[in-house]
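Our consortium's second objective concerns turning raw sequence data into structural hypotheses that experimental partners can test. To show how far this objective has progressed, the report includes one record in full. It was chosen at random from the queue rather than selected for favorable results. The single chain below, 293 residues long, was entered without modification.
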Amino acid sequence: MLSKSILIAAFLTAAGFAGWASPSAAQEAKASAAAEKLPADIKASGKLKLGTSASVGLPWSSIKEGTTDEFIGFDHDLTAAIAKKLGLTLEVSNMGFDALIPSLDAKRVDIVVSGMFDTLERQKKVDFIDYAIGGSIMLQRTAMENGPAERDQLCGFKVAALRGSLEAANAGDISDKCQAAGKKPLDLKIFPDAGAALPALLSGQVDVMVGDLEYLALMASEHPDQFKTAGETFNAGVAGMSVHKGSSLGPAVLDALNELMQDGTYDKIFTQYHMPESAHLTKATFNTATVDK
């Protein structure tokens, strides 16, 4: 059975990358002009408290094999670079994906970065600094025959999705369409993280997994004897870093991120984690989503 540690080790071997170190003396570093926009309490604390879900998996976010608190991935390393730009030390809290926005709302963290889609529904609670293009795709066992070739063919299949994900939210609409067409609804199985969903897919507990394009495409590429993607990409949209609604942290992060895009740091981290070119942005934007998915 495929373990999460094996998946991480395979990726890191291919990437040849040990991670972007969080600055140990960030407060002593010269902060960018963006730091002037920081909320007073965050500036006084000297810390940027990040909420992330390492279970999302690489290339977005994970924990280095053999450790319990050494975070790696595009999301972590980019946020560490932003913290350094702002003259702050990064402090990371790992949690389930569905706990991210509630933790931000409860002010346990200052910022959430976890490959999360910017949507109008989420914008009711938080502001987004959009930093990449994301999407969704279907993943199947390589040996599976007669599986669904497109999303509208999921009727009657056992489908895995992560708790709190956009794919899980979409499943109800797909199932309604199935029933309206006189077909069986899809059988949705919710999992807490990819580390639980992937073994369920391999064992046949579920037929298909719907999830993040970058992560699932990576799994299919690294393990072609076990996984294959199916159908076209769907849910294409911007992935955003979320902050408290109306907080001046948003403009500060936006400015710092655009500086990183201009000085080449964003591209360096993007390349080191083998992010697909389709996910690349040249300019960070604020609350870009104009429609809900």
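The partners drew two points from this record. The first helix runs from residue 4 to 15. Confidence is low (pLDDT under 50) at residues 1-29. Both points have been shared with the crystallography group to help prioritize constructs.
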